[in-house]
Design brief:
With 308 residues, the chain is an alpha+beta fold. It has 2 domains: 1-173, no CATH class; 182-299, Nuclear Transport Factor 2, Chain: A. It is 50% helix and 16% strand. The N and C termini lie far apart (45 Å). Keywords: DNA-binding, Sigma factor, Transcription, Transcription regulation.
Length: 308
């Protein structure tokens, strides 16, 4: 490839990298695996743009097709890793900057960030088959038509429509369509963490939790975490109160961040990320129906090491 051709290929890939990252991450929920797939996509793209090759009329469609098929191929390896994973597996959190969502916040910026698939949604997507997940991500998240997806996945339109219908029914049965607004999310998150950190206000905690609340904690066998989801507010209260969900963390600081588009929190110990806490809140009752705590250090390595 000539210098000019390589520069052109690099520029086109860079222009689409953010989209490709989002598509693949929503398929794999792992930053490291997503980066590996993007590298494979880049190599395929460079090879396709070698001298003498035919010009690609629609680079965006071509790149997404390569990336989504590389992601599908990687799902098998990820599934094998999960078989030996210690405790519940949660998606690797994508952490943005300050999660301030007051009246003066830039609504457009919040809306843009909220295009990310939430932690709770990613957990539901894990229950789909790889093909169902690919179709759901491409159609429902990124707005690709069934015909375009059929071309990307080498399936008929009818097959893609069937996969889309099955995936949507599955997701909607497990995930309510409405979510709490960002200000409610931030307020309840702050109250939950402050109350949990004190550890002596069980009545205050009880008021925040839905009766059927579930706690998922992912330590990956490297940090203390429950080996199974904890269901019911009484069991979760006992876990928080004894020995204390947050009191066990030395030199704890809380940094409020956007995690997968939702206001959430990063717990820092001596300036190093220790746990990411994301709450799933019922918009009607404003009660916490799900708690996701990711403390596996491998999944937190990319987070800025300061509470801020």
């Amino acid at each position: 490839m000539t210098g000019s051709a390589e520069e052109d290929a690099t520029r086109v890939f860079a222009d689409h990298r953010e989209l490709l990252f989002s598509v693949v991450y929503n398929m794999l929920a792992s930053v490291a695996d997503t980066e590996d797939v993007l590298q494979e996509t880049w190599l395929a793209w460079v090879s396709r743009n070698s001298p003498g090759g035919d010009e690609i009329e629609h680079p965006r469609a071509y790149l997404v097709r390569i990336a989504i098929n590389q992601a599908l191929a990687r799902r098998a390896a990820i599934s094998r890793r999960r078989e030996t994973y210690v405790g519940p597996w949660l998606p690797e959190p994508l952490v943005a900057g300050d999660a301030q969502t007051g009246d003066s916040a830039d609504a457009a910026e919040i809306a843009l960030r909220s295009e990310s698939v939430s932690m709770a949604m990613l957990v539901v997507l894990e229950t789909l088959s790889p093909l169902e997940r690919a179709v759901f991500v491409l159609h429902d998240v990124f707005g690709y038509s069934h015909t375009d997806i059929a071309g990307m996945l080498h399936r008929s339109d009818a097959a893609i429509r069937q996969l889309a219908h099955r995936a949507r029914e599955h997701v909607h049965a497990r995930r309510p369509r409405r979510q709490a607004d960002p200000r409610t999310q931030r307020r309840v998150t702050e109250k939950f963490l402050v109350t949990s950190q004190r550890g002596d206000d069980l009545a205050g905690l009880l008021e925040l939790l839905a009766p059927d609340v579930t706690l998922w904690s992912d330590g990956g066998g490297k940090r203390r975490a429950a080996l199974r989801p904890v269901e019911g507010r009484e069991r979760i209260l006992r876990l928080i109160a004894n020995p204390g969900l947050l009191q066990q963390v030395p030199a704890l600081e809380i940094g409020y961040r956007l995690v997968n588009g939702d206001p959430a929190a990063v717990l820092f110990s001596d300036g190093v990320p220790f746990t990411v806490v994301v709450l799933d809140i019922d918009p009607a009752t404003e009660l916490i129906r799900g708690i996701y705590a990711v403390s596996n250090p491998d999944k937190l390595a990319h987070i800025t090491t300061r509470a801020g």
